[in-house]
């Protein structure tokens, strides 16, 4: 085996993720949400302030603002005054947002599971351990 090429590994990982995302984007769109909005929605519980979302997702704050406004208009999130700091608003996932989130993540999981089926259980366990070590 030749030299381990970090760029090649990164490229393969990126291609895999984009293939999975592309394969389910139309179905996610049918839920009334874009794929990137789904990723934002998935982080709201843990990062309820837009600035935190931007940092977590490595997205510019104005981009997060656009996504949050769309999610709010769709009824998937709502804003409320943060009881810990009355000067700030925090985001909360609504019941309809939770349903869309669950369905969207299930679509992504199913598409990724299809790819993981190419690995046996020990390979999947090793892959998970390696990704956790890198993360």
Could you characterize what this model shows?
This protein is mostly helical. The chain has a single domain (6-134), classed as Arc Repressor Mutant, subunit A (Orthogonal Bundle), CATH 1.10.10. 67% of the residues lie in helices and 11% in strands. It is built from six helices and two strands, in the order H-H-H-H-E-E-H-H. It has helices spanning 6-30, 35-43, 50-57, 61-73, 95-116, 121-134, and strands at 77-82, 85-93. Strands 1-2 form a two-stranded antiparallel ribbon. The two termini are 25 Å apart.
Quick summary:
With 135 residues, the chain is mostly helical. It contains 6 helices and 2 strands, in the order H-H-H-H-E-E-H-H. A two-stranded antiparallel ribbon has the order 1-2.
Count of individual beta strands? 2
Look at the structure and give the CATH class: Mainly Alpha
Question: What is the element string, with H for helices and E for strands?
Answer: HHHHEEHH
Task: Please name the CATH architecture.
Answer: Orthogonal Bundle
CATH homologous superfamily caption: Winged helix-like DNA-binding domain superfamily/Winged helix DNA-binding domain
The number of domains? 1
Amount of helix: 55-70%
For this structure, the CATH topology is: Arc Repressor Mutant, subunit A
* Spatial sequence of strands, sheet with the most strands: 1-2
- Treating each run of at least 4 consecutive H or I residues as one helix, how many helices? 6
The poorly predicted ranges are none
Name the overall outline: globular
**Beta content:** 5-15%
Backbone structural class: mainly alpha
């Amino acid at each position: 085996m030749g030299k381990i090429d970090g760029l090649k590994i990164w490229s393969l990982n990126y291609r895999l993720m984009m293939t999975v995302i592309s394969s389910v984007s139309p179905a996610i769109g049918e839920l009334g949400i874009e794929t990137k909005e789904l990723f934002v929605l998935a982080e709201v519980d843990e990062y309820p302030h837009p600035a935190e979302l931007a940092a977590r997702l490595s997205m510019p704050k104005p981009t997060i603002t656009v996504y949050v406004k769309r999610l709010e208009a769709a009824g998937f999130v709502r804003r409320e005054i943060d009881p810990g700091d009355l000067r700030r608003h925090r985001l909360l996932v609504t019941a309809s947002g939770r349903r869309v989130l669950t369905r969207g993540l299930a679509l992504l999981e199913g598409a990724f599971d299809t790819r993981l089926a190419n690995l046996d259980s020990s390979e999947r366990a090793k892959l998970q351990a390696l990704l956790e070590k890198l993360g």
